Protein: Fatty acid desaturase family protein
Amino acid sequence: MSVPAESFRTADATAAPVARPRRARAAPARAHLDPEQLAAFAAELDAIRTEVVADLGERDARYIRRMVRIARGTAATGRGLLWFGWGPVSWVAGVLALASAKILENMDIGHNVMHGQYDWMNDPSLNSQTYDWDIVCAGEHWRHSHNVEHHNHTNILGKDHDYGYGMFRLTPQQRWKPSTLLQPFSYLLLATNFQWGVAVHDIKIGRFLRGRMPWPEFKRRMGPFVKKAGRQLFKDYVLFPALAFWQWPRVLLGNLAANLIRNVWTNAIIFCGHFTEHAHVFTRAETENESRGAWYLRQIQGSSNLEGGRLFHIATGNLSHQIEHHLFPDIPSDRYPEIAPRVREICARYGIHYNTGGFWKQYRSVLWRIVRYAFPGGRRPAAA
Structure:
């Protein structure tokens, strides 16, 4: 894993606020570690990574191959129910099965494979540079906007273009403008069409519209998107419905509903990863000359975990362990649940807040943040 050499500055921890029933608590202040502590902190996390990488093998290969089989089998079941079923019960069952397959393929397979988590297997079907996932986003666009920009510059305003996706004001450190009032409605639009938001993210359409990107570059960026989106639209809304003959309306609507469910679910999980109440943001100035330990610290303090059972974690592609994923993005995701307690214990010893909670608790705080900062003002975090 490459770690950029930029700097981190934190603020002293503050005393815990007086408890008041049913009132939101102040966000935990960012931990302050001196250079010696940061070096020791990094060494402990590096040791976890070294241990896991040395242990990779058949167990991890079985996991990802099992996920591929389950996703394919569930997709076949869902399509079969849509094609050959009759009545609303089989249609709903088919939609849920197909949506589950798409979620599993996108989150537990596509996302993790394209992070390079399984490149060590030398399996061409699981190669990070050639994997083609079931979504309108072109792989090369996602690998750049997500693997390079987001993971290296996590929650750094102006550098991490995933923070707010260029659409949302989520902190008072971002400028407010009248159009920001519409962001709760913009969020509903993005959530239901999330694969399209992901697909156009790396094209930088806003930059082109502001005259900061020449037409030839914009056209070059649009090429992979148009090609991939065209294939996906043809498959979901032309080919599969046509194969169903007189059942084509049932299949067309089923595919549309399955994509909608997948979009809403993946959006909720991904937004819970970095936009919860206690996820911190950072400025360019305070991340200059960042050491490895400071980079690790920023990944933890800019990420949020979700708590749940094994099936829940699988349905999130183990992005419910967003903290561990950001520390070790190229380690197979099935290892995150087992290393999470160790990471949490290390954080406790260094006085670092480990941001975790149930899905509804975390997601409510995301929705509140979207609504709150749609309006002017807002209190800047004390540690910012």
